[in-house]
Design goal:
Largest sheet: 8 strands, antiparallel
Helix content: 10-25%
Low-confidence stretches: none
CATH topology of the largest domain: Jelly Rolls
Shape: elongated
Number of domains: 3
CATH architecture of the largest domain: Sandwich
Strand content: 35-45%
Number of strands: 30
CATH class of the largest domain: Mainly Beta
Structural class: alpha+beta
Number of helices: 9
Distance between the termini: 71 Å
Mean pLDDT: 87
Radius of gyration: 33 Å
Length: 463
Amino acid sequence: PAAEPTFQLLSLAMGKHLFATRIFDLLRVVDFLQADSDCQGLKVTLWGEGVREGMMALYAAAIDSRFDSVVATHGLISYQNVIDQNGTPNFDWYVPGILRNADAVQIAAAVAPRKVIIEAPVDVKNSAADEQAIADHYAWADPVFRLLGGNTQYLYGAQVDAIAALLEIPTATVYGRLLAGGKPAAGARVEVLGSGVSTTTDARGQYALTARAGTLTLRGSGRGYSPQLAQVTAVSGGRTRRDFDLGTVAREWSLSADFSQRANPNGAWTFGYQRMRGGALTRYREFKWAGAYPDQFGFWKPRGGGSHDRFGSVDIYVGSDGSALYGLHCYDRNQVSLHAGGGTSQDDVDKVYTTARWTAPLDGKVRVHAGFKGIAYRGTGTHTVVGVTVNRMPKFTAQIDGFAGGGNVGPMGPNPVASYVEVLSVAAGDTIDFTCLANGEQLYERYVGCDVTLKEVGKPRKR
């Protein structure tokens, strides 16, 4: 209840701030420890972790010299920050009128010459403060500690090894620059593996961190780039430089993993149908869940009265593995299927090609892997003609006759599966269509499972 705003405001009305009451409780803990014969003579470190607790630790240490050292981890960087960011004061840690007399750095200075460690403070929005903001605020107390206690008594930063500082374990600074794709990377991460010490790069791609001296394994990483490991030998009290240059991660696309129930097109994928292979693509505009399997089986189809049996559909099943739908089809979890459209006769002239189209978002080389499998297990299974078309030109054609197997039903038919694998050179805007055409009279025979992945494997040749 102490954290409830009503209780906080009531305590203020009674002339007592809960923040001060909690600090008094900390001082009583020291009274108890000093009364215990087993604890007499031991050094006492006060460590507060959190926005409120970090501030409490500084206040208590400033008031009571029996604390030999204090660590404030993830505490509020400053009260001025609340005003600068137009934040809302929380009476859990805010002291009314405090800025008339002092801010966090002045409270820290009042602890000198005892050791003070300010570790990774946060702003009023509970976001990590950057190194520059920390230095701008806490450097004010540097001359105070130089005069009274020396530089080693006062440490602050986004990545301070508080335990090493308290135990006076030798530390070193590692710094450098991180490039990604040959350019400075802002907001990239550099960490010392196995230590919990990490930092992020500034707008120029530069970083600096303090870690225990010795042989360190560093890891540089950034979103969309391959991480890089490096070993350095950091000498106590010294500065060691290690730069990183990260390579771009190969991009990948997956028909099932990228499937969206809300958008078509979605990223590189567009679903629709073609009157002729390589012809104009008519986009599906409505996603609908099947009435018998809500939230399990759904499909993209023409909007409104357009029948998905007539114009085809691109379906997805998100239920359990090996489940049978309508007693007709057997699906794996997250299985995408192409449902060919058309009439009910095998020689129907109005058949359409159900199409999942990938549009290249880049210039380069991609490895295409397309797997097609029969998923209808009633009767003689799926009967469709599947294909891959690149820039409207047929690249691959196969006939699916049978059932690939799944659940408690084994495979059947002469051609239950087909696959296409090839590395293709593409330019941005090129299209690769994965199509399905009906080759059977029954509607349930026209469903074919389609598993497609594309992976970037090379850059285009320079002309």
